[in-house]
Design goal:
Radius of gyration: 17 Å
Strand order of the largest sheet: 1-2-4-3
Structural class: alpha+beta
Largest sheet: 4 strands, antiparallel
Order of helices and strands: HHEHEHEHEH
Number of helices: 6
Mean pLDDT: 95
C-alpha cells in the first residue's frame, strides 16, 4: 500500500471481527511504535498489550471506549523519560505518545487492521485496573483488530477543510 493510500483510506474503526490478530502482525505494529521518534530520543514509552478476554473485560464503556476489539494497546510514558522543553516548559511526553500511537495506527492499517485512537477514558482508572506503575502516565488507548464486514467510516470522516484553511505559506 502506498503511504498516501494508507492515510487516505484509514478511518476510526468502532466494530471489529472476531478474527484474532496474529502474533507476527502484532509484532510489526509494536515495532512501528518502537521505531517512532521521541523527544531527545529518550524512548520513554511503554506499550501494554491487552489481549486476553479476562484482561479486556476490565475495560468498561463508562470509562474506556474499546469497542470489543480483540487487542487494546495502552500507551504510556515513564515520567523520568518525558522531556520538558526548555523554552515552552511543556512536557513533550504527550507528544511522544501521540507519535508512537500514530505510527502504530498507520502500520496496523497498512497491514489490513483497523484501529480507533481513544482519548475518552480515565487514565487513573486504567492504571488501577491494570496495576500499572505510578511513575508512568497513560496517554492513549489504541483498540485494534480486523474490521467487521459491516463497519463503515463515521459520517464526519470525509469532512475535511481545504488546505487553504489550514496552511499558510510565510
Amino acid at each position: 500500500m502506498q503511504f498516501e493510500d494508507v492515510i487516505g483510506s484509514r478511518y476510526s474503526v468502532r466494530k471489529y471481527s472476531d478474527k484474532p490478530v496474529e502474533d507476527e502482525v502484532l509484532r510489526k505494529i509494536l515495532e512501528a511504535g518502537r521505531l517512532a521518534p521521541t523527544a531527545k530520543n529518550m524512548q520513554g514509552q511503554h506499550v501494554y498489550v491487552v489481549k486476553s478476554p479476562e484482561a479486556r473485560a476490565k475495560f468498561k464503556d463508562e470509562w474506556a471506549m474499546t469497542f470489543n476489539a480483540p487487542v487494546v494497546l495502552i500507551i504510556s510514558m515513564k515520567h523520568d523519560l518525558e522531556w520538558i522543553s526548555h523554552f515552552s516548559k511543556l512536557n513533550r511526553g504527550e507528544t511522544d505518545a501521540a507519535i508512537i500511537t500514530d505510527e502504530m495506527m498507520l502500520q496496523a492499517h497498512a497491514l489490513g487492521l483497523g484501529t480507533c485512537w481513544v482519548g475518552w477514558f480515565d487514565p487513573q482508572k486504567v492504571k488501577e485496573a491494570f496495576n500499572l506503575p505510578d511513575d508512568e502516565t497513560v496517554y492513549n488507548l489504541l483498540p485494534l483488530g480486523y474490521i467487521a464486514d459491516d463497519c463503515k467510516p463515521g459520517p464526519m470522516h470525509s469532512s475535511r477543510k481545504p488546505l487553504s484553511a489550514t496552511v499558510t505559506f510565510l
